[in-house]
Structures are given as structure tokens and as C-alpha cells.
């Protein structure tokens, strides 16, 4: 594919100057319009070494308001980044509505440089490409404009530029031994890049090839690509707004999932106090040892808790963490999104709390709010919560692909038990803070929530991130089941990791 690109194209200086003056003025206006329209923009510069990414980024931003963009340079992953899924550092850098994020290289390193260097193995490529596609699709569906630019030069041109950089003390540091290796094996590296382009050139995030031999021509084509794309996206938003129809209420009232998972849960399960104390003590001691083992083996763990109000999430979390080393876990309570979180993709705030390898992240309420409370209360559109099932599955798959144990608990109680607990809280001064008017209002929508939960459980319980429905009418039984499930999952993962390590060394 790339060998058919004409790298000899050039532009006359006078033509370049005239065209750039017109487009620069236009880009400044488009940046302001995107800010007013609340459109987040990501511009990615990638390509062959020494193709001029830094130079071209600098030319592009000269006419932009520096208060409205951020430039990120991506080199080798830091130690912090190595301990998390490879997309974590990019999710946390996604722009807020109205801002522009510019990336000098990016998430494509995983299927490009790392693949060339043997750090990404062939069997890992399909999941890596899928993770990247999911990442870009989720952002695009949420309104982010993604512009991907691939700067292309020939082997000879690259070698000439490397020699020029290496000849000067001021610039020699910019050419590494790895750069020379990639130039020597240019054809192999080019094939890797061609496959990357073919696999990830999509309608929602297309690649534009930039012939970068002539820097003026490259700058002009980049400016033209960016301005035309932003003009198109702004026009699309206007048309959508003009033709927007009133949204249907987010909650549906069908009975597709009415007789679903929850209707079959046996809430009569009980444990005596003595048996509860004995089993819990044994499990917590096991968990304490397993916590050290997952740290040693660098296994990340993500545990999410959802359930009815007063379902016992807090009590279960306390029993789960009481014997753990506090340096190795964090409990993340999830409330309504704040002003900063609202101007990002709804998954952004959860990506910010993904644990390092060897650590445990516990979420007291999770990203599933999109398909429950946001769906029921109309805080998102029907299209948004319907596509969230796939988005969530893809996010959890990426965590699992990075080696994480992902568990999700639904703490289930019946309506009568909830009412009993509500009244108990109201009558106890030490617990009155736990009950609010909103809790009582939510009870009135029990059937709608039950329908949404049934659908959620069916559509997002996977082999890599299963839902565990916990029979919660008896708190003793519920707490022991939660801790036992975590213990068994960690034991299985540790066994799997040790087996893999043994196979590699034998």
C-alpha cells in the first residue's frame, strides 16, 4: 500500500505561503467554534522515524489558542504505565469537551514499535487491535473527533535525516540505536506499519497518509486535513441539532427481562453466627496470603460492587478488606459525576482508578450506573445506554487482556428486606446518615430497576468479567460468599500465572 505513495511531491513556496495563511486563520476560528460547541478533538501524529512529527506539530499549533490544547509526547512506557493496561495512560489523557489533545505517537506503539522489538507477541496482536478499535469507537460515539496522521518518508530520506541529526551535538541524542535498527530493517518495519494502517483505518477514525519528504507540502496537507475535518464535524453537529427529534424516555417498559436472573435467586440462604465467624476468619486469612502473592506476581485485581440500596455493599467491602495490606488496595466510592467528569467520556473517571499490576481496586458502585440509574432517570439517551453494554464489555476485556482479575458483585435483597433495613436506619441515630429521600424515591421505581438489572446481568456477564449475584437477605451469608468468591478467583489466577511462567522457563 505505502509503496504506491508518491513521496516526490513538493509545493512551491509562494503557493505554500498563500494557502497556509488562509488555512491558519480558518483553524483559529474552527478551534473557537469547537470550544463553543463542546466538541473534544484528538489529533494523532505517527509515522516513520525522522519524518518530522515534532516540526509539524509545532507548525499546526502556532495559530491555535494555547489555552485550548495539550500536546502529549509518548515514549517508552513509564514504570507506572507498564503496571497498567496499555490504554490506561491514553484514557486518562482524553480531552474534555471543547479541548484538543495532540499526540506525538500514541497507543499505536503497542502494534508498531513494540511489535517490531518483540515486546508484543503475535498471539497478542488480535486483542491489541480490538482494544484499539474499541477505544476509538467509544470516544467517537461519545462525540470525540479523532484525526490520525501518518507521516511517511523513504528509507533513503530517513537515513539522510538520521545522519544529519547524529552529526550535531545538539541533536545527536534524538537518534537512538533502535532508530538505526529500524532503518536497517526498514522493509520489515514498513510492513508492520502497513498492517497497522489496514487494521485500524475506520470510518470513525480514518488514517491520512502525509507525504513528508517536503516539509512544506506535509504542513499544508496536515493543515488542510485538520481544517476540513473540523468543518465537516461542526456542520454535522448543526444538522443533527436542527433535525433532532425529542428523545424517548430512557427507561423502557417491556417485559423481555422481567422473568430474568433475579427472579431465580434463592434469598432464603442463611448462615448461623458461629459458622459465619469461623468461615469468614478462615477466608480472610487465606486472602491475606493471596494478597501478597498477587503483588509478587504483579496480578491486578478489579472488583465492582452493585446492588439495591441497603443491599450490604459497605459491609461486604469492609469484610473483604479488613485483613488486607492497606498499601495494596484502594476503595473507590462512586457518586454522581462532578463538573470535570461530566465533560469527559463517562468511562474516563473509572479509567483514572484502574489499579497498578499487583494492586486491588474496589469500586463501591461502578460504570454500570450508565445502564441503571442513568437509563432509568433519563440522564443519558437511549442510544447511549444501549451501546454502553458493548463499551463496558470491551473495557473489561482490555483489563483482562492486561492480566487483571475482574469480578462484579450484585448484592440482591427483596423489597421487604430493603424496607426493613430502611426503617432500621431511620430509627438508629448512628445510621440515619445512610438513608435519604432519594432512597425512598428509588423504591418506587423498583420494577424498572429490576428490569434494567436483569438486562445488565445477561448482557455483561462474561467469562473474563463475570457477574456474581449474591443472596443478600442474610448479611452473614452474603459477606462469606463475597470473600470466598474472591479467594477462589485469586487462587485460580495465581495457578494460571505460575503455570504460564513455568512453561516459558522450561
In a few lines, what is going on in this structure?
By secondary structure, the protein is an alpha/beta fold.
Write the layout of secondary structure elements.
Blueprint lengths: L12 H25 L3 E7 L5 H9 L7 E5 L5 H4 L5 H4 L8 E5 L8 H4 L8 H17 L3 E8 L2 H12 L10 H8 L1 H15 L6 E5 L3 H28 L30 H25 L3 E7 L5 H9 L7 E5 L5 H4 L5 H4 L8 E5 L8 H5 L4 H20 L3 E8 L2 H13 L9 H7 L2 H15 L6 E5 L3 H31 L1
Parallel strand pairs: 1-3, 1-4, 2-3, 4-5, 6-8, 6-9, 7-8, 9-10
Helix pairs in contact: 1-10, 2-10, 6-16, 7-8, 8-9, 11-20, 12-20
What does this structure look like?
With 506 residues, this protein is an alpha/beta fold. It has two domains: 2-242, P-loop containing nucleotide triphosphate hydrolases (Rossmann fold, 3-Layer(aba) Sandwich); 267-438 and 464-505, Rossmann fold (3-Layer(aba) Sandwich). 51% of the residues lie in helices and 12% in strands. It contains 20 helices and ten strands. The protein has helices at 13-37, 53-61, 79-82, 88-91, 113-116, 125-141, 155-166, 177-184, 186-200, 215-242, 273-297, 313-321, 339-342, 348-351, 373-377, 382-401, 415-427, 437-443, 446-460, 475-505, and strands at residues 41-47, 69-73, 100-104, 145-152, 207-211, 301-307, 329-333, 360-364, 405-412, 467-471. A five-stranded parallel sheet has the order 2-3-1-4-5, sandwiched between helices. It has a five-stranded parallel sheet with strand order 7-8-6-9-10, sandwiched between helices. Helix 11 runs parallel beside helix 20 (475-505). The protein is globular and about 85 Å long. The two termini are 41 Å apart. The relative contact order is 0.12. The model is unreliable at 246-255 (pLDDT under 50).
Amino acid at each position: 500500500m505505502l509503496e504506491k505513495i508518491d513521496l516526490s511531491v513538493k509545493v512551491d513556496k509562494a503557493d505554500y505561503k498563500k494557502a497556509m495563511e488562509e488555512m491558519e486563520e480558518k483553524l483559529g476560528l474552527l478551534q473557537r467554534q469547537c470550544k463553543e460547541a463542546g466538541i473534544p478533538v484528538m489529533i494523532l501524529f505517527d509515522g516513520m522515524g525522522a519524518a518530522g512529527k515534532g516540526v509539524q506539530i509545532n507548525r499546526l499549533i502556532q495559530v491555535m489558542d494555547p489555552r485550548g490544547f495539550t500536546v502529549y509526547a509518548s515514549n517508552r512506557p513509564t514504570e507506572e504505565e507498564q503496571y497498567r493496561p496499555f490504554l490506561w495512560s491514553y484514557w486518562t489523557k482524553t480531552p474534555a469537551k471543547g479541548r484538543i489533545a495532540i499526540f506525538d505517537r500514541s497507543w499505536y506503539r503497542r502494534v508498531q514499535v513494540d511489535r517490531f522489538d518483540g515486546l508484543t507477541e503475535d498471539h497478542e496482536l488480535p486483542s491489541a487491535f480490538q482494544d484499539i478499535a474499541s477505544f476509538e469507537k467509544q470516544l467517537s460515539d461519545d462525540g470525540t473527533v479523532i484525526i490520525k496522521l501518518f507521516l511517511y518518508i523513504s528509507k533513503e530520506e530517513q537515513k539522510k535525516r538520521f545522519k544529519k541529526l547524529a552529526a550535531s551535538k545538539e541533536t545527536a541524542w534524538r537518534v537512538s540505536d533502535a532508530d538505526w535498527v529500524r532503518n536497517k530493517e526498514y522493509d520489515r518495519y514498513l510492513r508492520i506499519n502497513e498492517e497497522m494502517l489496514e487494521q485500524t483505518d475506520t470510518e470513525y477514525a480514518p488514517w491520512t497518509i502525509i507525504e513528508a519528504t517536503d516539509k512544506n507540502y506535509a504542513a499544508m496537507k496536515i493543515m488542510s486535513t485538520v481544517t476540513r475535518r473540523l468543518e465537516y464535524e461542526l456542520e454535522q453537529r448543526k444538522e443533527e441539532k436542527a433535525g433532532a427529534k425529542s428523545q424517548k424516555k430512557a427507561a423502557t417498559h417491556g417485559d423481555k427481562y422481567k422473568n430474568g436472573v433475579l427472579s431465580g435467586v434463592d434469598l432464603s440462604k442463611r448462615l448461623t453466627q458461629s459458622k459465619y465467624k469461623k468461615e469468614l476468619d478462615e477466608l480472610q486469612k487465606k486472602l491475606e496470603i493471596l494478597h501478597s502473592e498477587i503483588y509478587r506476581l504483579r496480578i491486578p485485581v478489579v472488583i465492582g460492587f452493585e446492588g439495591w440500596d441497603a443491599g450490604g455493599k459497605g459491609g461486604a467491602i469492609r469484610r473483604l478488606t479488613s485483613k488486607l495490606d492497606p498499601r495494596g488496595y484502594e476503595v473507590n466510592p462512586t457518586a454522581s459525576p462532578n463538573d470535570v467528569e461530566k465533560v469527559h467520556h463517562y468511562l474516563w473517571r473509572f479509567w483514572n482508578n484502574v489499579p497498578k499490576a499487583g494492586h486491588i481496586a474496589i469500586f463501591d458502585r461502578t460504570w454500570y450506573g450508565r445502564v441503571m440509574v442513568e437509563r432509568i432517570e433519563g440522564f443519558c439517551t437511549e442510544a447511549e445506554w444501549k451501546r454502553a453494554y458493548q463499551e463496558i464489555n470491551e473495557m473489561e476485556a482490555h483489563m483482562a487482556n492486561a492480566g487483571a482479575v475482574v469480578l462484579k458483585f450484585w448484592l440482591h435483597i427483596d423489597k421487604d428486606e430493603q424496607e426493613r433495613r430502611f426503617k432500621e436506619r431511620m430509627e438508629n441515630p448512628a445510621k440515619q446518615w445512610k438513608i435519604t429521600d432519594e432512597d425512598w424515591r428509588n423504591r418506587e421505581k423498583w420494577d424498572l430497576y429490576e428490569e434494567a438489572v436483569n438486562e445488565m446481568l445477561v448482557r455483561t456477564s462474561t467469562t473474563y468479567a463475570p457477574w456474581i449475584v449474591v443472596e443478600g437477605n442474610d448479611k452473614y451469608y452474603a459477606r462469606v460468599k463475597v470473600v470466598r468468591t474472591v479467594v477462589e478467583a485469586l487462587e485460580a489466577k495465581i495457578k494460571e500465572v505460575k503455570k504460564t511462567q513455568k512453561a516459558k522457563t522450561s
